[in-house]
Amino acid sequence: MAAGREVVKSPGLGYKRPMPVTPSLGVAFDGRNPLAVLREQARAAEEAGADTVWVSSHLFLRDPFTVAAVVLGATARVGVTLLAVSPHAMHPVHMAMAAATLDELAPGRVRLCVGTGAPNDLADAGIEPQRPLRTLRETVDVVRALLGGDAVTYKGERFRIDNRRLGPARRLVPIVLAATRPRALELAGALADGVALSSASSVEFVGASLAHVARGAGGRAVRRAGLVYAAAAEREADALARFRRQLAITLRAGHHATNLRLAGVRLDQDALQRLVSREDWAAAEALIGDETVRRHTASGTPPRVRERLAAYRAAGLDEIVLAGLYTPEETARTVAIARGRAG
Fold first, then answer.
1. In order of start, what are the domains of the chain with their CATH numbers?
2. pLDDT digits (tens, 9 = 90+) for 149-189
3. Is 182 helix (H, G, I), strand (E, B) or coil?
């Protein structure tokens, strides 16, 4: 046990329910859609063949736990992953409470994804992450212990629990770690049930990232998921235009420098940051050329989308999560194309 951290265990604490490693397909909801639309979108995703829905926890947008409850209530089969709840904005006790309550609503259909959070969102909320790796490690420890159902005493550097248990009975909720940088990826491999890679990751970056996960895992099974922007159109130009703004917002962050380099893309991230900050969308989108879109999304004609998704699978993803879809019709069509049932 690391210095400064103590866990007093009871018999049920160390449970592990391995996450299945069969290939699956998910859809990401980012919190921008009204709940009425989102409900129909969830039903459309399930009917088209999606296995999971990933509900983003973005500050200043819709509450992810409410959204997850709506999705679970509107569907009968799909799993729901809460993505990626930040311990810098929410205490791990509250995370465990929310995950356990949702799993009580829909047993076996809930996963919790933990991550540091979007740097710009945290900064806008006046939150400065402290010791992010230590915080992630302790968060997984605390949440997993509480979900074990027994009384927990935990003495960490960031969090402390004094002989308390959750009100809900023991809930076997898998814990996923959202990670981008090498040490966080290795931590996911060593500690979590699964890892989630960011949207706008290139195929090359996915492969490099999963190598770090494997290094941390040391042979243990870890489910590997990645968000992929996907747009299909009969004209390639229409599909390539679809995600220029999203890519501008995502790729401006400094931690995507390695992602860009491995993809062979040259992009002025500082200029992009300034343009996005002042919402000069025309200029920001102009910096995102066609090749940048091709390298960081699955966009194009339907056969090209399937080809790109196959490349992401070949890079090591067990679960591809289609991102950037906002209408029920678009969601159903894109899932069907990904499944090879349309286009």
1. 6-10+22-231+302-338 (3.20.20.30)
2. 999 999 999 999 999 999 988 999 999 999 999 999 999 99
3. helix
